[in-house]
Every structure is written in structure tokens, then in C-alpha cells.
TrEMBL record, chain A:
Name used for this protein in its record: Autoinducer 2 import system permease protein LsrD
Quaternary data: The complex is composed of two ATP-binding proteins (LsrA), two transmembrane proteins (LsrC and LsrD) and a solute-binding protein (LsrB).
Gene from which this protein is expressed: rbsC_3
Superkingdom as given in the UniProt entry: Bacteria
Annotated compartments: Cell membrane
Coiled coil region boundaries: none
From TrEMBL, chain B:
This protein's record includes keyword DNA damage: no
Bilayer-crossing regions: none
This protein's UniProt keywords: ATP-binding, Cell membrane, Hydrolase, Membrane, Nucleotide-binding, Repeat, Sugar transport, Translocase, Transport
One GO CC term on file: plasma membrane
Annotated gene: rbsA_4
UniProt organism field: Palleronia marisminoris
GO molecular function: ATP binding; ATP hydrolysis activity
Protein name listed in UniProt: Ribose import ATP-binding protein RbsA
EC number(s) on file: 3.6.3.17
InterPro entries to which the protein is assigned, alphabetical: AAA+_ATPase (IPR003593), ABC_carbohydrate_import_ATPase (IPR050107), ABC_transporter-like_ATP-bd (IPR003439), ABC_transporter-like_CS (IPR017871), P-loop_NTPase (IPR027417)
Membrane protein topology class: Peripheral membrane protein
Automatic annotation (TrEMBL), chain C:
Region forming the signal peptide: none
Keywords, ordered alphabetically: Cell inner membrane, Cell membrane, Membrane, Transmembrane, Transmembrane helix, Transport
InterPro entries given in the database record: ABC_transp_permease
GO CC annotation: plasma membrane
Name of this protein: Ribose transport system permease protein RbsC
Main location as per UniProt: membrane
Residues that span the membrane, as ranges: 21-40, 46-64, 71-97, 103-126, 133-152, 172-192, 221-242, 262-292, 304-323
Compartment annotation: Cell membrane
Automatic annotation (TrEMBL), chain D:
Signal peptide boundaries: 1-20
Name of the protein described by the UniProt record: D-ribose transporter subunit RbsB
Gene3D superfamilies on file: 3.40.50.2300
Higher taxonomy: Bacteria, Pseudomonadati, Pseudomonadota, Alphaproteobacteria, Rhodobacterales
Parts forming coiled coils: none
Every Periplasmic binding protein domain range: 71-322
GO cellular component, one term: cell envelope
Length: 327, 503, 330, 372
């Protein structure tokens, strides 16, 4: 590289760069409003945010693992396990919520630790390691409940996913899950972009060998990334269980949606780049696509096709931009 | 002299925002070695890539034996008889020597299947040209060979195509002296056989040893053309536009050398044995030796990457035993890896992030990335400024910087840690002449500030010129020691003497 | 660290390379467990020739798919669209045949054409647009599944008895499909081991740039590998249509052929990063899966516990030879 | 790419209606409507032993000796309905001394695997009688045919396209289910009311027939069907869909083709601050409890899990050489109404337990079903 290329890079770099996911989201929201003017009412957009909350939280966690260079396919079945497990443990007792929720969060962290240990010390690529974990957790959820969860989730538990905070100025009401969403995404974004953890997650995804030789505790950072992903899945599970109650396949399909959302937000597969906010935007955009297609009265198959096309187009576009700017 | 095999006329090539070559003319004749020199970014690689069909020129012409040719793909040039050996090995570690040699042009039987027997025989024939390579089994997996042998295979691969023009892009970058000699012999053989050789290098000694003619590029233009090899100074002046008087920093004066920083007694592991090593505050110790002599293994052992299994190490008076690089860094050792791209840099991150990587690695994961016990963003920026890193902004990705500037950012990474011992592996590999001097002076400054420096380099003049003492390694042991300014011949002899006897 | 002199990590010159034998060792282990369980539960009738043949024939569709998946993984790509493609071709073939023997050939041709097209598109999106293969084929999978379910929601069409020979016919004691799988595996082996195309595949997977500079049209190789993978998925779809007598839009997804075929290939010792591995490893991987299933059935393992064990086994099998590598994985 | 898939798809569409199973068969509709009214034969209060239609077949000539080994190829236990049914089955097996070993293989919801399972069972050579719960009708037919050559086969839940099994045990069917719910709606709301129809998945035979029957009755009664949506059986999605419909207008009744997500649908009304309309659910405990607690106007048609008991009973009779209803053993399919609600609600049972299990009097009730 000659020094002269630096200046050209500098020029393109200084252009204001808006992540295209926000433009996509804006366009989609405009479309939704066109189809359904009620969307501008608090009921409209709050319902939307409430619906997007589990996926957005999941994507914010997934982006840690993706940025660190891996995948976490186990989050979907972890959600199922959290919901089923909560129902088994609370067993209709409202007081149980206070220890069940911390326990579930702990379980999410624990699954992350196991994922991380398998990848770091058994050297199993995360695609396979978390695929195995996905199958195992799914089996565990069934094994634990015998196929049919035993308890109802008490209202205390469902508070986070179902209740509203009323009489809020300006917007009227805020679903508790939306508050959880902003708090969690805020914390994860701060961790990713303002702390040593985030920088090192980037570093190990970018070049693990260099990171190790520079003294980065690669395994610790990688395991932490998996833990945060597991934790976010546990939180998403608690919100989903709260929103919709017990069922045995709550989480299925969420792992790919979370990866899709992160990728829509410009996270680079195999590591080195990723933004929590953009993944959050990606999750909102994905939910907005689904909502819009619903309003258009398009059936499920069409939604799949559109999701597939957007996924490919988003990455192709990102590659194209990267090629153009040479970064 | 005969007519040129290759004649490149008035080549101009522009990349978005950069004019890489303007009006460059260049030719090479059969049976000669034409040295192509110039700083990084001067346009050597671009010129070669145009010749080999990786890039297309915007204007100008390439003539082969007087006829205009247009290479649109590396294959085109390969078919025309131009074979290029790139700096990075292009061998497949999982395949055999024969499979690598015939990659992309495997002989086939009448059934259309690969003719493995013929491939093996022809491989043996080609390898027989090389002294050292005659014993290589064509069925060996390349990944199991050592680096030098791989380099031979790489060259054999180029020769086996029956090329009439061979381009070598810094072929000695990964070789030690003995291997270099072997390579030079190979080049001589090729020349005798009437092959035209374009030889790119940074090393003046190689030019003197090999070249028939020299072309110097600077800023995308031909700065000088010599029909006979001139004095090195002349070439350097053409390359950089001035003399470099104080290329190496002056050696340490006796009062600058302080107490022991590092002391190893009887260190050994699977590769090393009986290592006794002392490094003092304020001195630069150079490690010389041939490929596989154990220099990098010694660095890895000190750095906890492939630790000693026996012996004692004291660092600053304390007995230590480092099992991981992290532990070694915590103990006060720093290491600049030999391969910047694959071992040193996190390319997609900013210059500042690269500089702060290590200091952040030793702070709490959960605390702010702007400030930690060892550094903060303001201090890091100051450090980067001080080292005169040329970057549009420290927020820009480090991948856009030149090799020298990248290397400085890695040095900055260690400066904030204030290491007691700093190990440099091939500190100037792939760095242009101007920046090299910068790195030598930087090393000297660090030593003056009280650090002990251990420097490993395959560039013999560099080790001798930059180090206060030179230790020579052979077969995992330290076999000799020389003071600053020793003769290359003596060092060379110490590095190879016993192995010659053994062979 | 490579440095100027990487310490020689390969002290064992051309000696025993575990990764070469790992699939066979795993297969032997799986078989030993099977025999052990059969004997321990006193069900020696499960050791008959018929039964062993039945085990070999358990996962034919998975085996065929995995052969194709081996090609894409060898060139460091991956294909997640095989499951949807299996469904699509099973439906397409069964609808075109619609019980008529005369339509077998057109149906097979149409299915292969569809597969070729999907593989071509996958390959071009990966090479031309530079989209990560995981995303490209995941997107393709969604598109195929969406298009398919837009038009068909149940078993559609039917397969004539003549075509059912594919799945149910026997040649002596051997099921025809098993022999077909064996033939396909041999073909793939010859292709990889003895042709220039095979050599190019390993080159592209091992070092894409080196392959390009050696004059190999790397993009074409990647695209071709994707086409082969898709055509194998098509064959698996045809086999399933023959076996199920009809095609339904869920048979691919129900069999989890996408992720399982990848797991089979990886357990068979082919590296996700490309350039190393082979067909017989994949076949060993397939047999390991069949044996695991059979062990579970013989031992009467609860179906939920089965899942738990299967997940652990996949990870453990890959860890078996990955664990000793020094490379940092993510 | 897309266009070609569309084209092939369009081709498929043009062919499918001619040959695919017909899910809107007026004859079958009428037959099931009639069966709902019929008085079943057999002991009263034990619907799993009852049958509609009087044909029987002798089994003494099959020449089996007790105790015999019964092998069961299960499509899967991948949803709560199958879990409850499978528990019924295992408990019922314990009641029969004539059944020696009971071998169970589970195909985990894959046709291919179930075919392989049946082949394994046949190759093992241990089975005397085989019970099959097919994953899909068409795909399993050849495997069942092969099994028939070796031993008596009993099929339940879904059928196969062959009459070789001794009998096919099943409740009245999907049309019946659809009829019961839709008629309840017609009785309880005015003509022209807004009805939302929620469906699980397209293409599943038992669900398609429920829908076509329900749709037929609602259309004939002049209801305004505001939408028919697929929920994937996903609670969150169900809730979202209902919320979206509520933003657009009132809903007077909700018809569902299966009750798994009924409570989520009800919660959508509650959470959006609407009255809960007339509801068609199913016999899962969570719905029944919600119904009782909120005093809904509702009905719970059932697809009784007690058929899993009946399949075992049929196998035992075959071993013992007793006659069984054949070629089909049609079981009654009662709907739970307001009057019987209290009999079926049981807070001790898990939320996803299916109340119409016919298992209350069995030995290990409620523990084996996960109750307290």
C-alpha cells in the first residue's frame, strides 16, 4: 500500500456513513404507515416494538458472537428451554418468579459458558458446537417436561412480557418488554462500543492469532461473547413466555432470524465488525418486513421468499459497498 | 546482447485516486538477471502484476520476442512462458509435492484421468535440478516440509512449467543465508539455461551477487537504469532520492548498558536445548542463524507461546516461567511478530485500537475502553504522533497504512506497556528503506530508555548493523557470539559450520 | 507464529496422521457400541446380515445429500438450501410423473434441471456477488421453500410403481438404492481423486489465490461444486419421492437434511475451512449416524433423550480430532 | 430463478387439484355430520371402547398366542397431544396380560425415518403384532403393506391407502371437529357477525378438513369471515395476528382448527382491552381453565387422545382372538360444552394436558400425565 492511497481512503471515510439498515427501516415503516395509519398511534408502534423486543434482544446478543468470529445456533432452543423450564419450576406459584428468573438468566449464561468452552478447548467450530447444543437443549426441554410442560407461568413472571406501564406522558403507555428492550440493548451497545470487552471481541474476530500474541485473553473474551448471547436468549425467552405463555416450540427458528437481523445490521460473518445498534435496527427491519407483508395480506410462503431475497440483497449490497470503498 | 524477451513500453496504470505507474518502460533479455528495485509503493508489484496478467495496463504495450501480447489472466502469461513466484507461498499444504508442482496442468491419461505416475516422474526430474531438493519425495505432503524446502518447491514449480521468463518477488524474504546461497545457485543455473529472470529485492547484497542490470522505480516512474551493477549507495540514492548516512543507529556506549534484564540458563524444550542467554538493560541483542536453527522457537519459548520445558529463566532478577503469551506480557515481555498481517495486526480495526490492544487486554473487560492503567486514548494519540505515523486519522482502519506505519503502531502497542524485554522478529520485513531506518532508531531509543531488546532477523547485515551483540544459533542451541560490527563471513560460518560438517 | 523459521511442528515425518483415520476409528467405535448394546440387551437377532443391510440402507437420502455437501465444503463453501431443494424436487418429480411411467424421464430431467439451476444460482451469488455462502444458501432455502409452499401444501402427484423400484427394488440381498449410493460414492471418489476437476477442488479449498494463479478458474470450480451439491440433493429428493411414493413440501425440512448433511461431512473429517477431506469419510459419517439411530432403537432410548445424546455425540465426534489441533477456531 | 420456480409451481397448481386428497368432500362431510349424531355401540361412559358402525371382523384365525410382542412405530411425540396419547398408550399396555413385550420406535416426525424404523422392526423379526401411527398417509403405505405380509397391523390416528391392516382406529374426523365448532358459533352470534378463523398450518389433512367443514357452515350461515390466518401453532404469532385484527375492527367470534394457541388468542383480546368473543378452542386444560375463570361463551371440540388406548385394546383383542370393529374402528368424538366443563377442568393437570383422554380412571392418574 502506498501512502497516497491513504488520503483517498480518508476522503471516502469522512463521508457521512449512514448504515443502510436505517434507510431500509425508514422505508418499511413508511410503507406500514401507508397501509395502516393507525401505526402512528402509540398502540400501533408500541405493539410493534413489543413484538420486535425478543428478536432485537436476541440479535444484540448474537452480534457479539458473530463479531467474535462465530455463530450461535443454540439460542432458539435455549428460548424454548427457558420457557418450558420456567413453567416446570414456577409450577403455578407466583412467588417462585423471584428465584426462577435469576435462575433462568443463570442458565442462559451457563449454556453460553458451555458453548464457549467447547469452541475454545475442544476446538469444535462454533457452527457445529452450537448446532449440537441446539439439538441437545431441544431434547432437554422435552426431557424435562416429558413433552408437556407442567405448570402455568404465573402473572408475576409474565409481567415482563405482557404488562404495560400506563399513564406515561407523551406516549400514553409503554409495554414493560419495550423498557426491557431499551435497557438491554443500551447495556449491550455500551459494552460493545465503549468498553474493553467490545474492542477485544472485535479483535479476536478480526485476527485471533494477533489478539493472542498481543495478550488478549482470547478464550475468556470468546466465552464471554457466548455468555452474553446465552443471556440475551434467556431474556428473550422470559419476554416470549411472558407475552404468549407456555408452549413447546416457542424458540424454533429464532436462531436464524437473529443471525439475519445481525447481518442486516452489517455485522460481518466470520468476525471483526459488528454493531449492536445496527443489529437492533436489523431486528426492527425484519419485524417490519413481516408486519408489512401481513398488512399486505401476503401469505407465509411469500414472506419466506421476501426474507430470502432481502437477506441475499443486503449482504450483496454490503459486499459491493465494501469493494467500492476498498475497506 | 540479444533482443529482449520481454519489453514493456510506456506502461501507465491508474487505480481509483492513485497513479501507480506512469510511462514506465522496462525490458529483460534471455540469460540475464534484471534486478527491479524501489521502495514499497514505488510500483514494482503493479508492474509485475501487469506483466503476469493480474492487472491490465491503461496504456502502453507489452512485447514478447518483439510481438505485442495481451495477458488478461495469470494463465495467459503462464502459457506464454512467464512464471511468477509471489512473496506469499502459493502452495497447498494439504497436497503432495507432485500435486503442487503440477497444479492446474496435471498430465492426463487417455481416459482423461490424472496420470499420477507421470506426474511423480517429472517431479523427480525437475527437483533434480536443485541440489537440496533431490531428496524430496514427490509424494510428501507439502505442509510437512519446512519453510525453506517449501520455498524450493515453490521455485521448482515455476521452473517446471518450462518458463522462459521467471519473476521472483523478494524470494529470500523467508530464507536464511545458507538457503539464500542455494537459491542464488539456482538462479545461476536458470540464467545459464537462458532463462530471463526479473528479480525484485530490497537487499543490495543480492543485487551485487546476482544482477546483470538494475532498474530502479520511484513513485511509479523509472528513476534510474543501470546497465552494470553500481555501488549500493547509488541505487539507494535513486530509490529514496538521497543518501542514508545514518542508516543504522549507533551502537550502545558502555555506560548505556545496564544490569541484567533477562537471563536463561539451560533452557530447552522439544526444539531448543542448553540455551544460556543474557540480555541487559539498554542493549540490543541480535539472533542470527539459518532456517530452523531455533531463533523463533527461542522467542516463542521466552514469550510463553511454546514454553521452555527445562532450565531456569530470570526476568529482572525474579525466577519466572511463562506458560502463555499473556503471562509473559504480564511479566514484562513484549513481542513484535514476524508476520504483521497474520500475527500482528487486527486489520479491520482502527490505528488507535491496534495501538491500545495490549493495554486494553490487561484492563477489566467491563471498564471503559478510553482509559486504563497503562494507557488512554490521549496518550496513545500522542505516542502515535511522536512516532510520526502517517495516517489520515487514527480512527481509520489500519489496513490502509503502509507496512512501516503499521509496524510503528504495533511498537506503540508495546510502548504503553513499558516492557522490560522487547522481542522483535523480522522487524523490517517488507518495509521500505526509509522506514527501515526509522525502525532501527526506534529500537535504539527503546533500549536507551532502559529496555532490553532481542532482535531476530534473517537479514544478516541488519543483525550485524543494528545489534550490540550477535548470538548465532544452530540446531536449537546458541553456538557463537559476536560483537557489533562483526564480519558477515564470520557470522555466516558460525551459523553453518557444523551443519556443513554433518552434511 | 510462523516467523522466519516456524518451529517444526511436524516432527513425525509422514507418520500416522490421526485426522486421516479418525472417521474410521469413530465408525469402528460406533459399530462396537452397536454390537455391545445388541449383545447386552440380548437381542442377537439384530446382528443378522439382513439387519446390517437394513442399517446400511437407513440413511440413503442423507448419504446422497452428504456426498454433494462434501464437494461444497471442500471448496470452503457450504449449502443450507439442500433440504428445501429436496422437498422441491420430490414434489416436482412426483407431480410431473403423476403415476405415469412414461413421464419418469421428463420428471427426472426437470428435477435435475431445477437442481442445476439452483446450484448455478447459489454458486453465482457466492462467487459473483461475494455473498457469504451461509447467507446465500440460507436465503435460497427460504426462497425455494416459500415458492414451493405457495403452490403445494401436501403430498402432490404420485410416483408410478416403476419408479418405486429406485427405493424398494433389490438386487439379490442388496437394496438397489444402497448399490446406487455406493456407485455414486465411487463416482465422487474418482472425480475427486483422479481427475483434474477433483484436484482443482482441493486447490480452491486449500488456497484460493494459489489456485487462481495456477490458472484454475476458481469461480467456475466453486459454481460447479454447488451444481454438484444441488444435483445430489435432487437425487436425494427423487429417492425420497420414490420411497414415499409422492412428494410433499416438508420432507426435506423434516429430515433436517441441511444441518445433518453438514454434520455428517464434518464428522467424516472434511474441514469446514475447505481443502481437506474426502468422500469415504463422509460415508463413514453417514454410517455413524445410521448406527446411532439403530443403537437408540435397539436400546429403546426415549426419543427426547435421543435428541440430547445426538447433540452431544455430534460435538464429541468433531471434538475427537479437532481437540488436538492448535488452530484457534471460532 | 424465481420465475422458473413460479412456473414450475404454477404447473404444480394446475395438476394438484385433480389428484391431491380432496379436503372438501361433501360426501365425507355428510357422513361425519351423521356420525356425530349416531349413538355409539359399546359400554357407556367408556368411549374408548365404543364404536360407531357395527361391522366386526374375526381375529381368531390369525392364530396368535398370548403373551405376544407388540411393536409400535410412532410418528413422533413432538407435540403435547401425542405426549398425552403416548402416556395413555403405555398405561393401557400395562392392563393387558396378553401383551408381553412392547417395543416402541419413534420416527421423530420424519416419514423417511419411520419407513426405516418399520423395516428395522421387520428385519429384527421379534414382532407379533404391529401398531403404526403413520406420520403421513401416502408415504407410509408401502411400509405398512410390507408389514401386513408378516403380521397383523393396526393403524390409528392417520390412515394408510390400503385395506391390509386389521383395523384403522380413529375418531369421527376433521369434518366433525370443524362442524361442532362452527355450529356453536352460528348458534351464538347473529347472522353477518365478524368471525376470525385461525389455522395452524396448511396442507395437514386433519386440519384442512376441519377448516373446510367450518368454513362451509359459517359461509352458509351468512357469517362475515374477516380473515383466515395461519399461526404455525405459535403463541406469540397468534397473539400478534389477533392484535392486528383488533386494530382494524371488531371480532364477534373466533374459530380455531386446533386449540393449542387458544389462550394466546384470548389474551390478545384481554390485553387490548376488548370483551372476549365467542370462542372455539380444544380440550387442553389451559383453555378450559380460562373458559371457566372468565366465564366465556365457548366450546371445545376434541380429537380424543383416548384413541391411543383403543389401538392397544385392538392389538390385545387380536392376540386374544377376539373380534374387533373393522375395517375401521370409528370412535366417538365428543365436544366439551358449558354443561360438562366442570367435569373436565382439573387444576391439578398440566396446562397442555388434553382433558378428553379417557384416562381419569386409570391406575397411575394423574402422576403419569404430569399432574399433581
Amino acid at each position: 500500500m502506498s501512502d497516497r492511497t491513504e488520503t483517498t481512503h480518508a476522503r471516502t471515510r469522512r463521508l457521512p456513513q449512514i448504515n443502510p439498515v436505517w434507510l431500509l427501516l425508514a422505508a418499511l415503516v413508511a410503507g406500514i404507515i401507508l397501509m395502516n395509519p393507525g401505526f402512528v398511534e402509540p398502540t400501533g408502534y408500541m405493539n410493534f416494538l413489543k413484538r420486535a423486543a425478543p428478536l432485537a434482544i436476541l440479535a444484540a446478543g448474537q452480534v457479539y458472537v458473530i463479531t467474535s468470529g462465530g455463530f450461535d445456533l443454540s439460542v432458539g432452543s435455549l428460548i424454548t428451554l427457558v420457557v418450558v423450564g420456567s413453567s416446570m419450576l414456577t409450577n403455578n406459584d407466583p412467588a417462585a418468579t423471584y428465584w426462577v428468573i435469576p435462575l433462568m438468566l443463570g442458565m442462559g449464561l451457563g449454556v453460553g459458558v458451555v458453548n464457549g468452552l467447547v469452541v475454545c478447548f475442544l476446538r469444535v467450530p462454533s457452527l457445529i458446537a452450537t448446532l449440537g447444543m441446539m439439538i441437545t437443549l431441544n431434547g432437554l426441554a422435552f426431557l424435562w417436561s416429558g413433552g408437556a410442560p407442567r405448570g402455568y407461568l404465573p402473572d408475576t413472571y409474565r409481567f415482563f412480557g405482557r404488562e404495560l406501564v400506563r399513564d406515561v406522558p407523551l406516549v400514553g403507555f409503554i409495554p414493560v418488554s419495550v423498557i426491557v428492550l431499551f435497557v438491554v440493548v443500551g447495556i449491550l451497545a455500551w459494552l460493545m462500543h465503549r468498553t474493553n470487552l467490545g474492542r477485544q471481541v472485535h479483535a479476536i474476530g478480526d485476527n485471533p492469532v494477533a489478539a493472542r500474541l498481543a495478550g488478549v485473553a482470547v478464550n475468556r473474551v470468546r466465552i464471554t461473547a457466548f455468555m452474553l448471547s446465552g443471556l440475551s436468549a434467556a431474556i428473550a425467552g422470559i419476554l416470549l413466555g411472558g407475552f404468549a405463555g407456555v408452549s413447546t416450540d416457542v424458540g424454533s427458528g429464532y436462531e436464524l432470524q437473529a443471525i439475519t437481523a445481525a447481518v442486516l445490521g452489517g455485522a460481518q460473518l466470520l468476525g471483526g465488525r459488528g454493531s449492536v445498534f445496527a443489529a437492533f435496527g436489523g431486528a426492527l427491519a425484519l419485524t417490519a418486513i413481516f408486519t408489512l407483508l401481513n398488512f399486505l395480506g401476503l401469505p407465509q410462503p411469500v414472506r419466506q421468499v421476501v426474507q430470502g431475497l432481502i437477506l441475499i440483497a443486503a449482504v450483496a449490497l454490503a459486499m459491493h459497498r465494501r469493494k467500492q470503498t476498498g475497506t | 546482447m540479444t533482443t529482449p524477451v520481454i519489453e514493456m513500453k510506456a506502461i501507465t496504470k491508474t487505480f481509483p485516486g492513485v497513479r501507480a505507474l506512469s510511462d514506465v518502460s522496462f525490458d529483460v533479455r534471455t540469460g540475464e538477471v534484471q534486478a527491479l528495485v524501489g521502495e514499497n509503493g514505488a510500483g514494482k508489484s503493479t508492474l509485475i502484476k501487469i506483466l503476469s496478467g493480474v492487472y491490465q495496463a491503461d496504456s502502453g504495450a507489452v512485447l514478447m520476442n518483439g510481438k505485442a501480447v495481451h495477458f488478461r489472466h495469470p494463465v495467459d502469461s503462464l502459457r506464454a512462458g512467464i512464471s511468477t513466484i509471489y512473496q506469499e507461498f502459493s502452495l497447498l499444504p494439504e497436497r503432495t509435492v507432485a500435486q503442487n508442482l503440477f497444479l492446474g496442468r496435471e498430465p492426463r491419461t487417455r481416459l482423461g484421468l490424472i496420470d499420477a505416475a507421470k506426474m511423480r516422474d517429472e517431479t523427480k526430474e525437475v527437483l533434480a535440478l536443485f541440489a537440496a531438493a533431490g531428496r524430496i519425495d514427490p509424494d510428501r505432503i507439502v505442509g510437512e516440509l519446512d519453510v525453506a524446502t517449501q520455498q524450493v518447491v515453490e521455485i521448482a514449480k515455476a521452473v517446471s512449467t518450462g518458463a522462459r521468463v521467471v519473476v521472483m518477488d523478494e524470494p529470500t524474504a523467508a530464507l536464511n543465508e545458507a538457503e539464500c546461497e542455494e537459491l542464488f545457485a539456482t538462479v545461476d543455473t536458470l540464467r545459464e539455461r537462458g532463462v530471463a529472470i526479473i528479480y525484485i529485492t530490497h537487499r543490495m547484497r543480492e543485487i551485487a551477487r546476482l544482477a546483470d542490470r538494475v532498474t530502479v522505480l520511484k513513485d511509479g516512474e523509472v528513476a534510474a537504469r543501470f546497465d552494470e551493477v553500481p555501488a549500493p549507495n547509488e541505487i539507494v540514492r535513486a530509490m529514496v532520492g538521497r543518501d542514508i548516512a545514518d542508516f543504522y543507529a549507533p551502537p550502545a556506549s558502555p555506560d548505556e548498558v545496564g544490569g541484567l534484564v533477562l537471563s536463561v540458563r539451560g533452557g530447552g524444550n522439544a526444539v531448543l536445548d542448553g540455551i544460556d542467554l543474557d540480555v541487559r538493560r539498554g542493549e540490543i541483542v541480535g539472533l542470527a542463524g539459518i532456517q530452523g536453527a531455533g531463533r523463533v522457537a527461542l522467542a516463542r519459548a521466552l514469550f510463553g507461546d511454546a514454553p521452555f520445558e527445562r532450565g531456569d529463566v530470570t526476568l529482572d532478577g525474579d525466577a519466572v516461567s511463562f506458560g502463555t503469551p499473556r503471562a509473559a506480557i504480564l511479566g514484562g515481555i513484549g513481542l513484535l511478530p514476524g508476520d504483521r498481517k497474520s500475527e500482528g495486526l487486527v486489520l479491520m480495526q482502527s490505528v488507535r485500537d491496534n495501538g491500545m490492544l495490549t493495554s486494553r487486554a490487561f484492563a477489566s473487560l467491563w471498564s471503559s475502553d478510553r482509559r486504563n492503567a497503562h494507557s488512554d486514548t490521549v496518550r496513545m494519540d500522542g505516542l502515535l504522533d511522536h512516532m510520526e505515523i502517517r495516517a489520515a486519522s487514527y480512527d481509520q482502519d489500519i489496513r490502509a497504512l503502509s507496512g512501516g506505519n503499521q509496524q510503528k503502531a504495533i511498537v506503540a502497542r508495546w510502548l504503553s506497556m513499558r516492557p522490560k524485554l522487547l522481542i522483535f522478529i523480522e522487524p523490517t520485513r517488507g518495509i521500505d528503506v526509509n522506514s527501515k531506518a526509522g525502525i532501527y532508531h526506534l529500537m535504539r531509543d527503546l533500549a536507551r530508555e532502559g529496555a532490553g531488546i532481542l532482535m531476530i532477523s534473517s537479514d544478516l547485515p541488519e543483525v550485524i548493523g543494528a545489534a550490540d551483540r550477535v548470538l548465532v544459533m544452530q540446531a536449537g542451541r546458541i553456538v557463537a557470539e559476536f560483537p557489533h560490527g562483526a564480519s558477515e563471513q564470520d557470522v555466516m560460518h558460525a551459523a553453518t559450520a557444523e551443519s556443513e560438517v554433518a552434511a | 507464529m510462523s516467523g522466519s523459521e516456524g518451529a517444526p511442528p511436524h516432527k513425525t515425518k509422514s507418520g500416522f496422521r490421526l485426522e486421516r483415520w479418525a472417521p474410521l476409528i469413530l465408525l469402528g467405535g460406533a459399530f462396537a457400541i452397536y454390537v455391545g448394546v445388541v449383545l447386552a440387551t440380548g437381542q442377537a437377532q439384530y446382528l443378522t446380515f439382513d439387519n446390517l443391510i437394513a442399517i446400511l440402507g437407513r440413511s440413503i437420502a442423507l448419504g446422497i445429500t452428504a456426498i454433494g455437501q462434501t464437494f461444497v465444503i471442500l471448496v470452503a463453501s457450504i449449502d443450507l438450501s439442500v433440504a428445501s431443494l429436496i422437498s422441491a424436487t420430490a414434489v416436482l418429480a412426483s407431480v410431473i410423473m403423476d403415476g405415469s411411467p412414461a413421464m419418469i424421464l421428463p420428471a427426472v430431467l426437470a428435477a435435475v434441471a431445477l437442481g442445476g439451476l439452483v446450484g448455478l444460482t447459489n454458486g453465482l451469488v457466492v462467487t459473483g456477488l461475494g455473498v457469504n455462502p451461509l447467507i446465500a444458501t440460507l436465503g435460497m432455502s427460504l426462497i425455494i421453500q416459500g415458492c414451493l409452499s405457495a403452490f403445494v401444501s401436501n403430498f402432490a402427484g404420485s410416483v408410478p410403481a416403476e419408479f418405486q423400484v429406485f427405493a424398494y427394488g433389490r438386487l439379490g440381498p442388496f437394496p438397489l438404492a444402497l448399490l446406487f449410493l455406493l456407485a455414486l460414492a465411487c463416482l465422487a471418489w474418482i472425480l475427486l481423486r483422479f481427475t483434474k476437476f477433483g484436484s482443482d477442488i482441493y486447490a480452491v479449498g486449500g488456497n484460493e489465490e494459489a489456485a487462481r494463479f495456477a490458472g484454475i478458474k476458481t469461480r467456475r470450480i466453486v459454481v460447479l461444486s454447488h451444481v454438484i451439491c444441488s444435483v445430489c440433493a435432487v437425487i436425494a429428493g427423487l429417492y425420497l419421492a420414490s420411497r414415499l411414493r409422492s412428494g410433499a413440501p416438508w420432507i426435506g425440512a423434516d429430515g433436517v437434511y441441511d444441518l445433518e448433511s453438514i454434520a455428517v461431512v464434518v464428522i467424516g473429517g472434511t474441514v469446514l475451512a475447505g481443502g481437506r477431506g474426502g468422500i469415504w469419510g463422509t460415508m463413514a459419517g453417514m454410517l455413524i449416524f445410521s448406527l446411532i439411530d439403530s443403537v437408540f432403537n435397539v436400546a429403546g432410548v426415549d426419543s427426547f433423550a435421543k435428541q440430547v445424546l445426538r447433540g452431544i455425540i455430534i460435538v464429541a465426534a468433531v471434538a475427537f480430532y479437532a481437540a488436538r489441533s492448535k488452530r484457534i477456531v471460532a | 430463478m424465481k420465475r422458473i420456480l413460479m412456473a414450475t409451481g404454477a404447473f404444480a397448481v394446475s395438476v394438484v387439484p385433480l389428484h391431491a386428497q380432496n379436503f372438501d368432500d361433501p360426501q365425507e362431510f355428510a357422513k361425519q355430520q351423521e356420525q356425530l349424531q349416531a349413538e355409539p355401540m359399546g359400554p357407556e361412559g367408556q368411549p374408548w371402547l365404543q364404536h360407531i358402525g357395527g361391522e366386526m371382523t374375526e381375529t381368531a384365525d390369525l392364530g396368535l398366542e398370548a403373551p405376544a410382542t407388540v411393536c409400535f412405530s410412532n410418528a413422533g411425540v413432538n407435540n403435547p397431544w401425542r405426549v398425552v396419547g403416548y402416556t395413555n398408550m403405555m398405561q393401557e399396555v400395562a392392563n393387558h396380560e396378553s401383551i408381553g413385550d412392547f417395543v416402541h420406535v419413534d420416527a421423530e416426525g420424519s416419514d423417511d425415518k419411520q419407513i426405516a424404523d418399520i423395516n428395522d422392526l421387520l428385519a429384527g423379526g421379534d414382532c407379533d403384532v404391529m401398531i403404526v401411527s403413520p406420520n403421513t398417509t401416502a408415504a407410509l403405505t408401502p411400509a405398512v403393506e410390507r408389514a401386513c405380509e408378516d403380521m397383523p397391523v393396526i393403524v390409528f390416528d392417520r390412515g394408510v391407502n390400503t385395506d391390509c391392516p386389521v383395523t384403522f382406529v380413529h375418531p369421527i374426523g376433521g369434518y366433525g371437529f370443524g362442524i361442532q365448532g362452527a355450529e356453536f358459533i352460528v348458534e351464538n352470534v347473529d347472522e353477518g357477525s365478524n368471525v376470525l378463523m385461525l389455522r395452524i398450518l396448511p396442507g395437514v389433512d386433519v386440519l384442512e378438513t376441519r377448516y373446510s367443514a367450518g368454513r362451509r357452515i359459517l359461509d352458509e350461515a351468512g357469517m362475515n369471515i374477516v380473515g383466515a390466518e395461519f399461526t404455525d401453532g405459535d403463541n406469540a404469532k397468534t397473539k400478534s395476528i389477533v392484535e392486528d385484527y383488533l386494530m382494524r375492527g371488531d371480532i364477534d367470534a373466533v374459530w380455531m382448527d386446533a386449540g393449542a394457541t387458544a389462550v394466546a388468542a384470548i389474551e390478545a383480546f384481554e390485553d387490548s382491552g376488548y370483551e372476549i368473543p365467542v370462542f372455539v378452542g380444544e380440550d387442553q386444560q389451559d383453555f378450559l381453565r380460562k373458559w371457566q375463570d372468565e366465564d366465556l361463551t365457548a366450546i371445545a371440540p376434541t380429537y380424543p387422545t383416548f384413541q391411543w388406548r383403543t389401538a392397544v385394546i385392538a392389538a390385545a383383542r387380536v392376540i386374544e382372538g377376539e373380534p374387533v370393529p373393522a375395517p375401521e374402528w370409528v370412535l366417538p368424538q365428543p365436544a366439551i360444552t358449558q354443561d360438562e366443563l366442570a367435569d373436565y377442568v382439573n387444576p391439578a393437570m398440566p396446562p397442555l394436558h388434553y382433558a378428553m383422554c379417557g384416562c381419569e380412571s386409570m391406575e397411575n392418574y394423574p402422576d403419569a400425565w404430569g399432574g399433581n
